[in-house]
Write a structure and sequence with these properties.
CATH topology: Metallo-beta-lactamase, Chain A
Strand content: 25-35%
Strand order of the largest sheet: 1-2-3-4-5-8-9
Order of helices and strands: EEHHEEHHEHEEEHHEEEEEHEEE
CATH class: Alpha Beta
Distance between the termini: 6 Å
CATH architecture: 4-Layer Sandwich
Helix content: 10-25%
Oligomer: single chain
CATH superfamily: Ribonuclease Z/Hydroxyacylglutathione hydrolase-like
């Protein structure tokens, strides 16, 4: 897809599995299982959705997925593949890891930042040696000192090597990264998660990450049990869904395996996702 001078490509970074009840919070299983049928372990299939941009003379990767550093125990729990799908997805787009100029992490949870690094001789090193990694400053600070509730969502090997190599570009609040590409706070999942807004040619694509992880989370009360601040999520969703509908943006869900991007259409008081193929 082209947005003016910006070239945008969707990257599928593979699937993983999380507990369905946790993914849908207070929504009862008899309701959510009609939308996302669970497996025998009560897990639902989720995607790790990413974007590749060519904008402002830069090659920009938005999200890096789960990576390939998982041991057998965690691959069994989460269903991660044995190898990182990211290098192959980039190669299919004609991009090598050294070609990437900027990596934007919406936040540092393992399913969004696992591909930040790779193993080399048993040690985690930056996967993109020439890139600056864009992140909210508060998120890096929180990742280093998480709460007991979200400690399991952070893996130090995903971000400590970036600190050691001095590759962070830390921002505070809404920030333009290159012309047409900005990061904006979308708090609720945690306080320092950011969305990515890409605008050009009178079109806007907005990656909403874990604010609306799948199209099934469009109803305002459908909020993940993983969210640290669910009432903040509620108000953040109310604000951004309204704007996406009103201005005709395309939203990119963080984890929808079947419909990663969609217009939001309001019909009879409900918000209906209209799927969009970003790679056409």
């Amino acid at each position: 897809m082209h947005l003016g001078d910006i070239e945008l490509r969707f990257l599928d970074l593979g699937n993983f599995y999380l507990d369905g009840g946790a993914m849908f919070g207070i929504v009862p299983r008899p309701i959510w299982e009609k939308k996302a049928p669970p497996d025998s372990r009560n897990r639902i299939r989720l995607a790790m959705n990413a974007l590749l941009l060519h904008a402002g003379g830069k090659t920009i990767l938005v999200e890096t997925g789960g990576g390939g550093k998982w041991d057998a125990k965690h691959r069994d729990i989460y269903g991660f593949s044995e190898s990182d799908p990211l290098p192959a997805a980039l190669a299919q787009a004609g991009v090598r890891p050294p070609d990437v100029d900027l990596v934007i992490n919406t936040h540092l949870h393992f399913d969004h930042a696992g591909g930040n690094t790779r193993l080399e001789g048993g040690r985690a090193v930056p996967a993109f040696p020439n890139a600056r990694y864009v992140l909210q400053r508060a998120e890096l600070e929180h990742a280093a000192h998480p709460t007991e509730r979200d400690r399991g969502s952070y893996v130090a090997e995903d971000f400590t090597p970036i600190t050691e190599s001095n590759q962070w570009w830390l921002v505070d609040g809404e920030t333009q990264i290159v012309p047409g590409v900005s990061v904006v706070p979308i708090p609720g999942h945690n306080l320092s998660i950011q969305g990515v807004k890409i605008s050009g040619g009178e079109k806007t694509v907005f990656l909403v990450a874990d604010l609306i992880p799948t199209r099934h989370h469009l109803p305002l009360p459908w909020i993940m049990g993983y969210d640290l601040y669910p009432l903040t999520t509620l108000e953040t969703k109310r604000r951004w869904i309204s704007q996406i509908v009103r201005e005709g943006w395309i939203a990119v869900f963080g984890h929808d395996p079947d419909s990663p991007a969609a217009f939001f259409r309001e019909r009879q008081g409900k918000i209906i996702p209209e799927p969009v193929d970003l790679n056409r």
